[in-house]
């Protein structure tokens, strides 16, 4: 029995590593198993600036390891030739657990997601994936790595291999083990201070944050993987939203590329999940994002329109608007309504969110943006 287990560990060294405290079992697709060589190859591809039309932008430009895999403090991402997109770069940390990728869930998994930025005109700006395969075909180190990982000669390397390696690398970027995890999952009373504990109570009760940013019995991803309209972007659009939605459907029926449309047209971006599934009930709906390492990734929301965690809580406290007097969209999700939190409770909630930072991510983060609070 013992011998058999040792044998299995030797065969699957990566799989035998336990997930950090607070995270569920890592889902790995059966047709793309994790191996150390594949992960190293994916790391190199993720950082290769030659895979952009200007030779200056890589995945890591917008998902920088020293910025918790975002481009904080930019509100929206900047790609080739300083072109700006419409959306705030979500972290790649723990994206391996997402049931869909992108703010609007238009991509099913990491392998599929990775093909899009190369071709987006405001991201890496290539017309086709061919130039990527050309760079690889001329690079001896890449050829050797692809042969070792996938058993293919340089002529047989395809985008499918490239995307699989990138996804395998991304699956190693998982982070838990925060003060909150020690408090909640290991029962270490002192892992949170009094203010953070009060904030946790608000998160669970008066704030009702946990109804969307969910916590399970033995792990927490802080997302229900669903889409909700919480009043970001859509409030400003007001009555323009219906004609906008209608004209987008027409453009889509004529073949408009959804990935390009939502990242190049700010108003179209605010249509959210609707742009993907054409459901009016999803107008302005966005995927509930994780809250892990949130203190490191300001500004916030799909359009980067809220500067601080305090602004975020005030937005919720007002029932879906930072400015109390702003008219709120009729498409707002049922779960969003005024909370009547006190100033103290608002501060406490911010403190609680700051306890969701993983120590190793904090250590590798260059602090250009100041942390808030205490
Ligand atoms: C120019 C900046 C930029 C570049 C380059 C870029 N991304 Fe992103 N990334 C973004 C933005 C912005 C989004 C959100 C877009 C959306 O939701 O519509 C995003 C979304 C993602 C997501 C989804 C995360 C989630 O929580 O849904 C993943 C994963 C990701 N990018 C990985 C990559 C990979 C892999 C590459 C390289 C092949 C890459 N990105 C290149 C800016 C960038
Ligand atoms: C009805 C579901 C729902 C509830 C309730 C909810 N959220 Fe959210 N949260 C979301 C969605 C959806 C987004 C993204 C919205 C967007 O970008 O348009 C979000 C975004 C955030 C963000 C920004 C994340 C980022 O990466 O930019 C923070 C922080 C946040 N919520 C904290 C909270 C707190 C604190 C509460 C409780 C006061 C709360 N949320 C209640 C669904 C919810």
From TrEMBL:
List ligand-binding residues for heme c 2: 209, 212-213
Q: What is its main location?
A: periplasm
Query: Residue span of the signal peptide, if any?
Result: 1-18
Task: Output a single Gene Ontology CC term carried by this record.
Answer: periplasmic space
Q: Does the keyword S-adenosyl-L-methionine apply?
A: no
- Share the record's PTM remark: Binds 2 heme groups per subunit.
Q: How is the cofactor bound?
A: Binds 2 heme groups.
- Which positions fall inside the Cytochrome c domain? 37-143, 194-357
Residues bound to heme c 1 are 59, 62-63
Per the entry, which co-factors are needed? heme
Keyword Signal tagged: yes
The organism's place on the tree of life at top rank? Bacteria
InterPro entries, sorted: Cyt_c-like_dom, Cyt_c-like_dom_sf, Cytochrome_c_Peroxidase/MauG, Di-haem_cyt_c_peroxidsae, MauG/Cytc_peroxidase
Query: Where does this polypeptide localize?
Result: Periplasm
Q: Name one GO molecular function term.
A: heme binding
UniProt keyword list? Heme, Iron, Metal-binding, Oxidoreductase, Periplasm, Signal
PANTHER family found in the cross-reference section: BLL6722 PROTEIN, CYTOCHROME C PEROXIDASE-RELATED
Q: Please state what the protein is called.
A: C-type cytochrome
The species this protein was found in: Aliikangiella coralliicola
């Amino acid at each position: 029995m013992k011998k058999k287990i040792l044998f299995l560990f030797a065969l699957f060294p990566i799989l035998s590593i336990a997930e950090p405290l607070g995270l569920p079992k890592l889902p790995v697709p059966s047709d793309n198993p994790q191996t150390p060589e594949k992960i190293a190859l994916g790391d190199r591809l993720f950082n290769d600036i030659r895979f952009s039309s200007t030779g200056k932008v890589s995945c890591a430009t917008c998902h920088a390891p020293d910025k918790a895999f975002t481009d904080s403090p930019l509100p929206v991402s900047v790609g080739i030739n300083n072109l700006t997109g419409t959306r705030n770069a979500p972290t790649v940390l723990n994206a391996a657990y997402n049931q869909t990728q992108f703010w609007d869930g238009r991509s099913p998994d990491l392998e599929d997601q990775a093909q899009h930025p190369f071709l987006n005109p405001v991201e890496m700006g290539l017309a086709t994936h061919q130039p990527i395969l050309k760079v690889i075909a001329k690079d001896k180190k890449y050829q050797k790595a692809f042969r070792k990982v996938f058993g293919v000669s340089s002529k047989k390397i395809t985008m499918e291999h490239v995307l699989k390696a990138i996804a395998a690398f991304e699956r190693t970027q998982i982070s838990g083990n925060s003060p909150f995890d020690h408090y909640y999952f290991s029962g270490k009373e002192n892992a949170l201070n009094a203010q953070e504990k009060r904030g946790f109570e608000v998160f669970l009760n008066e704030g009702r944050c946990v109804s969307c940013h969910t916590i399970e019995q033995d792990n927490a991803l802080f997302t229900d993987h669903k889409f909700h309209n919480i009043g970001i972007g859509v409030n400003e659009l007001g009555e323009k939203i219906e004609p906008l939605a209608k004209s987008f459907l027409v453009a889509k029926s004529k073949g408009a590329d959804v990935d390009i449309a939502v990242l190049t047209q700010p108003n179209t971006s605010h249509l959210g999940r609707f742009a993907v599934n054409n459901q009016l009930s999803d107008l302005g709906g966005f995927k509930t994002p994780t809250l892990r390492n949130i203190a490191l990734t300001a500004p916030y929301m799909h359009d980067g329109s809220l500067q601080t965690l305090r602004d975020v809580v005030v937005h919720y406290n007002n029932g879906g608007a930072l400015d109390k007097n702003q008219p709120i969209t009729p498409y707002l999700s049922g779960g969003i309504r005024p909370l009547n939190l006190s100033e103290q409770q608002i501060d406490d909630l911010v403190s609680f969110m700051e306890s969701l930072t993983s120590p190793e991510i904090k250590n590798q983060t260059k602090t250009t943006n100041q942390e808030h609070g205490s």
